[in-house]
Fold these 2 entries.
Entry 1:
Amino acid sequence: MFALVLLAVVAGAMAQRVAGLGFGLMVSPILVVLLGPLDGVMIVNACGATSSLLILSRVWRDVEWRRYLGLMVPGFAGIAVGAYLASHVPAAPLEIGIGVLLLVGLVASQLVARARRRPEGPVDGLGVMAASGFSSGLMNAAAAVGGPAVTAYAVLSRWDQRRFGATLQPYFITTGTTSLLAKALATGGHWPALELWQWVLVFVCMLIGIVVGDLLARRVAGETVRRFVIGIAYAGAALAIVNGISHLSAGA
C-alpha cells in the first residue's frame, strides 16, 4: 500500500512541475482511499506545499503577486470552512464528499474552459477573483484539490499560462500550509500516522518527480500533461466515492 502512495507522489510531482498544477488532483483521491480522508488530505497538503516550494525557485520571475494576494485573502476564509468540515464529518461521508467535490470542480472548470474558449474580453473583477479564491481554499482544506477553482478563474480572466503556473506555486505553498495547520488545530493536534522514514521516502519521491518533470517539461506540452492529470483525477474521484459508499454500507 505504501508503495502505491510513493508512486502517486512521484506522478503528482511530475505533473505539478510540467503543468503548474496536478499534485492534489492526482494524489488526493488515491491517498484518501489508501490512508483515509483526513490523513490522506493532510499528507497531500504537506507534500503539495513542499512541492510548490521546490518549484518556486525555477519560476519566481513570472509570479504575479497582485493576483496571488487577490486569491489568497478570500482563500483563508475558504480554508477555515474546509478545515472545520474535514475535522467534523465522519470518515465515510467525508470520503464521498471529497470525491464529489473533485468531480464538481473538474466538470465546472472544463465547462468554463469550453464556454469561454473565445471570450470577447477577459472577466477579471474582484468578485470573480474572490469567489475563486474562497472556493479554492475550501476545496484545498477539505480535499486538497484547490486547482480547479483557480483554473476556472485563469480561463475567465485569460491569464497567461506561464504566469498562471508560476503564481500557483506561492499560492499552493500558502494554502497547503494553512490547510494543514488549520486541520491540526481543529482536531486537537491530530497528525498523519507515518513513521519518520516514511515521511523521508515521500519527500525523496517528490524530489524524483520534480527532477523527471524538469526533463519532461522540455519535451511534453503542459496541456498534454494537464489532460492526463484530469483523466486520472476523474478515475480517482470515482474510486473515492465508491470506496466511501462501500464503507457506509459495511457500517450499516
Entry 2:
Amino acid sequence: MKISGLAERAGVALSTLKYYQREGLVPEGVHRNANQVDYDETHVQRLRLIRALLEVGGLSMAGAKDVLRTLDDAAKPLAETFEIAQAALARRRPSSAASTTSTAARSRVHHLAQSRGWCISDENPGLEVAAEAIEGMLAIKHEPSPEYLDAYADAAEAAARADLQALSLLSEQDQIAELMVVGTVLGDPLFAGLRRLAQQDATREMFSTTTTPQEPPS
C-alpha cells in the first residue's frame, strides 16, 4: 500500500505519520522505484503500537523510542525489555531524576513487598511511585493502614498474574515482548479506570446512593 493508504489504515494523519518516520519510529517501506514506496500490515501494526504508547500510554517520544528500540532487538532478554518498559513508563511522570520521597515512605513499600515475598530490585520505579502515593496520603493526614496496603497489594498481584497469563498464551518471542511492553504501559490506565468503576459501585452499595446501574452496550 502507499503511504496515504498506510495512514488511513492506521488511523493517523499523513503529517503525523511522516513525523514518526522522521523520528525513526516507523521502519522503511520497500522502495519500488524513485517515486514509490510500499508498506504492508507490519507497518500498520507498528503505527498502532506507536499510538498506544504515545497517545494512550502517555510516553514521551524518548520513552517510546527506547521501548521500540528494545522490541526491535531480538537478542534482548524479556526481563530487560520489561525493565525498559517500566523505566519509560516512570519517565512520563513529571519528576526529577533524584528520589524525592522520604526514606520512611520507601522503607514502608519495601517492607510491604518483603512481607509478601516479592522478589524486586531497588531500581524498580514502582518503589518511588508507591512511596509518593503514601506520602501524598500522609500529607492529608491519612495514615494508610497495613490492611489497606495489603488490599492494594492483593489487587496488584491479581493484575500481575493476569498479565503473565496473557503472555503465556503466546508462542512467538516478538509477540510476547510486544504484549509485555504494551501491557506495562496501558495496564496502569486500565487498572485506574476499572478501579473508578468499582469505587462507584462500592459507594452505591455501602452508602446507599441512587446511582442507576449502566446497561452494557448491545
